Amino acid sequence: MNIKRLMLAGLFLAFFNNISEAGTVRNRGGITKSGTYRKPHYKTSPNQSKGDNWSTKGNRNPYTGKKGTKKGY
Reduced to 3 states, what is the DSSP secondary structure of residue 41? Predict the structure, then answer.
């Protein structure tokens, strides 16, 4: 790769990371009350809207790349 491509990729990643972190909540993971282990993960911030959740159709989880499948409204 040439230097221009590396610089452009770095700028893109920095910009994308700033966008994806807005409205993000980190879950540390651990053992639930029922004894199930939950991996640490990120989720959208809680609010009254279902349309902006990563799991809603038309949206994509920026950390996993999975497309949303749930009906938003």
Answer: strand
